[in-house]
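tool_call: predict_structure(chain=1)
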Amino acid sequence: MLSLFTIITFLAFAQKPDPYFFDKIAFQEKSNFINKSTFVESQNYALTDVVYQRMEWEINPNVLYIKGVVTTYFKSETQNLSEIEFDLHSSMTVDSVVQCHQKITFSQSQNKLKIPLSEILNEGQLDSVSVYYQGTPSNPGFGAFSKTVHAGVPNIWTLSEPYGAMEWWPCKQSLVDKIDSIDIIVSSPDSSRTASIGVLVSETVNEKIRRMHWKHRFPIATYLVAVSVTNYVNYSDYLALDDGSQIEILNYVYPENLAAAQSKTPVTTKIIKLYNELIGEYPFAKEKYGHAQFGWGGGMEHQTMSFVSNFGFNIVAHELAHQWFGDYITLGSWQDIWLNEGFATYLTGLSYEHIKSDTEWYNWKKNRVAQIVSNPGGSVFVSDTTNINALFSGRLSYSKGAYLLHMLRWVLGDESFFLGMQNYFNDPEIANGFARTSQFVEHMENAADTSLTEFFNDWFYGEGFPVYSAQFATGETGLLTINLSQTSSHNSVGFFEMPVPVRVYNINKTDSADFRLIHTTNNQEFIVDPGFKVAELKIDPDYWLISKTAEIVSVPTISKSNNIVVYPNPFIDRINILIPGNERITKTRLFSTDGKLLQKTEDHKAGLFLKNLPIGIYILQLTTSEKTYEKRIIKQ
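tool_result:
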């Protein structure tokens, strides 16, 4: 999916983080999609498998026009295949179609090019056709084939996401079939150079015509094919790998921006190294990664060469992340747009965590949460893909999708989370293909050996977020009682069952302690041992959760516990309890030292059998009609 940076002049190359970055991305994508959302995928897509395409084009940046031939090798997926169909806008004129060195008939209507084959194909049989065509591509507001100017020099560039490829070349525009490999050959005036996908095989100049040949040998979704033609200069950065090989980061930039670009792009090597370590090796390492500057205020993750307007940290990290999630693994349905955009957004966040400062990482999280909770509803899952506002929501598809991953990391822990991410990335069923959310969930469940049904029901399909309230009281023994409650911002989720991070401080904030409260019911009580008298409590101070905090109240200190007797302590299988005076026990609660409720009773027993309790330290809370007592007990 298209990923865009803030609309600024590319000469600025601004680095300052923009809290509205993903809103601007979504706004641009929304505008693009509105112009192309009427496209309907053909029912005939499943009848063929596109194996290879060779695109040969003539492009002059001074003229908004394209002429060329696209040769498609395809394999029949059915018996008795008699016709092949391509998507091609009616603004393109087809001069001829050739099969087996012979011109054959064709028909063109309603943006479809239908070609009756000269021979009927059986299932598995390979054949090819060449389409010769030319024309001025349509430009409905936002063009997939556009002409802009930089420093007085024209630039023609393409941006086909999601349904724009058919505006400028005959293709199978689909999320069900990737092209197995491609060659792109562009002829242009010798003053211009072409940036494109894959590896540059050759660059020759003859009679003032420059011919550049790019070769790509990985499966590629149709919308990720791209070219950009202008007076480029180029240079490369390199990332050395442990096996002695290296990844080239090839940069095609406007001459007037060369010095500024050279100062910005080296950070790309650090980000690739990070993603390699966290997710898996850059999937197109055998070819290259690169940037091509183009004439639009944003960026697009074209496979192996992202088109960018500038080289700010946000845009570099975001477009690069798409090479893993969006290009190598592509969303299988627009309902799952978060698999592209939420993932790329979170990897951008991880680059802040590991490469930028602690303050910048903190602010990145803070800004995401503030954006998400600015509205009480909204689902990451897109139930209606004709609802453009939902599909390209910076708040939901991007930020909430990213934070779904961040919360999943909090729930599962780093080891299980990143193992699940790596297993998803390495799944051979979706490698170089398309994926749905259910496949990702399965990998995360397997990695953590747990069910995530409740989590995804709440956070992926459900809407809203929890609004927390807490009361806390410090006993004179130093034990802390916390009563935690929540309300939901949207009625689609009654209760968000989550581990809630809490931090407590002493009165001078010279001491602090962190606790993970497993919140499963409202008005839930936890007893923890911070080791000091608590004066202040904060919920989720490091922004692990999508949440708001309504109020936190400190209540008077609970009763002294020095008159209660619990013996033996330490104990082996049973403890006895003596309460002073005529008081009678009405409620018993046993907690772990991290606040997890382990056992509760509502009777009046003066003793507890705890034979099956693991060896360790526990906190016993006893409530009578008059007081609440706390006691630290030890199982041996």
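agent: DSSP finds eleven helices and 36 strands in the chain. Proceeding to next step.
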